[in-house]
Design brief:
Elements (H helix, E strand, L loop, with lengths): L1 H13 L2 H20 L5 H14 L22 H4 L1 H4 L3 H21 L5 H20 L4 H16 L3 H14 L16 H22 L2 H22 L10 H9 L7 H12 L11 H17 L9 H14 L6 H16 L7 H8 L7 H16 L13
Length: 396
């Protein structure tokens, strides 16, 4: 009886969203404090100096070795987003940046139209992958939130704000455009298109109001060149990026010349085919599974993907898993455990270092479980018989 009471108490605690929020905030605080005492906080310094370089009308996409160790790859609009943090002392700016990204993802997941217990399960499933992204002070945490909010807002027929979220994400980091994957689920599609055009124009012009039109136009040109060059560099056999379908193929074969194109054609074809199931659009589980597919697809078919980028894909993995009908298929459980071990835990000290350094990093194997799960998701989207049930939002 005592043991049963203790287990019930633990279960209740783990499903208390205030407790979960506290854990997420604590993780953000601890990581930010730890990173504040590092000799260099490279990503945050890159982000911070985007604002100061814009103020001084300096190029945004060239190296500044006296300031940080890499180059910026975010759009000119990012200079305004980072400004409130950049103006603060580093340790405060870093802390608030970390909290802002973390809370954004927390509240995005909270909006998903599924039962509370499923939402809570997603929080716990992605917690370790979130930690990996936190250590890099990554904006990818917010990219995951942007894609989720795009879905949720379209689902709620709030097309004006859905269009804003998508275009805003696109102008910050190209991944944001993935929100358009949910266009076919939108009601009043002509209005949605007009809203996208409105926000595209407004957000394109917005940085020009703070800096100058000629400077921002040049920045957009430089951004395009920067991203093109980065794509070529990522395709090497030794970069920290290219943890993707293509990266696995290149690194397992040892052939860096393998093109992205055939993989993208196959991937996009498989991604698009479920759109043909028009009658399924009205079924919430079908749409949510499409969200999972989009989140995973975004990462596994990008040769810019690095370890912290997988917070985006892993949210998709979590959504897929909680949507599985009970009793859950043993193969789905095995795939899920495989993803927890190889994708989420492999970058950490909880995983054997020799295996990580000798096999996982050199062959981009962190991507493998997500690739396999995406194939399963795609198969389910194509062939599963979905049943129209009321969406539960307050429990199971």
């Amino acid at each position: 009886m005592v043991k049963s009471t203790a287990l019930h108490g633990l279960f209740k605690l783990l499903n208390n969203q205030k407790f979960i929020l506290g854990v997420w905030i604590l993780l953000a605080l601890l990581v930010a404090i730890k990173q504040a005492f590092q000799p260099t906080n490279n990503n945050y310094l890159i982000f911070k100096y985007v604002y100061f370089h814009a103020v001084e009308r300096l190029p945004l996409y060239i190296p500044y070795p006296n300031e940080h160790l890499d180059t910026n790859h975010y759009g000119p609009l990012f200079s305004l987003l980072i400004a409130p943090f950049a103006l603060l002392p580093n340790y405060i700016g870093m802390l608030l940046w970390q909290l802002a990204n973390t809370l954004f993802l927390y509240f995005a997941i909270k909006q998903l139209p599924i039962g509370i217990r499923k939402v809570n399960a997603i929080y716990w499933i992605v917690a370790h992958e979130l930690l990996t992204a936190m250590f890099g002070l990554q904006f990818n945490i917010s990219i995951a939130a942007i894609i989720i909010f795009a879905y949720v807002l379209i689902d709620k027929n709030k097309n004006f704000w859905a269009a804003f979220v998508i275009i805003f994400g696109f102008y910050i980091k190209l991944y944001g455009i993935v929100g358009l994957a949910f266009f076919f689920f939108a009601k009043q599609k002509p209005k949605f298109i007009l809203y996208c055009i409105f926000w595209a124009i407004l957000l394109f012009i917005l940085p020009m109001l703070f800096f100058s039109p000629s400077y921002i136009l040049q920045c957009y040109q430089d951004w395009y060149v920067s991203l093109s060059e980065k794509q070529a560099l990522n395709a090497s056999l030794t970069s920290m990026q290219d943890i993707s379908v293509m990266g696995m193929a290149r690194r397992i074969t040892g052939d860096a010349s393998i093109s992205n194109l055939p993989f993208l054609v196959i991937g996009l074809t498989l991604f698009i085919i479920p759109y043909l199931r028009f009658k399924m659009y009205k079924i919430p589980d079908f749409r949510l599974l499409f969200l999972a597919s989009a989140l995973i697809f975004t990462v596994i078919f990008s040769n810019s993907s690095e370890s912290p980028t997988y917070i985006i894909a892993f949210v998709g993995v979590a959504i897929w898993f909680v949507l599985q009908e009970k009793p859950i298929n043993p193969y789905s459980i095995a795939l899920f455990i495989f993803a927890l071990l190889l994708t989420s835990l492999s970058p950490s000290d909880l995983f054997p270092k020799y295996i990580r350094e000798a096999y996982i990093k050199p062959y981009s194997l962190k991507a493998l479980p997500c690739i396999l799960i995406w194939i399963v998701v795609t198969y389910q989207l194509m062939f599963k018989k979905f049943i129209l049930n009321p969406v539960k939002t307050d429990g199971e």
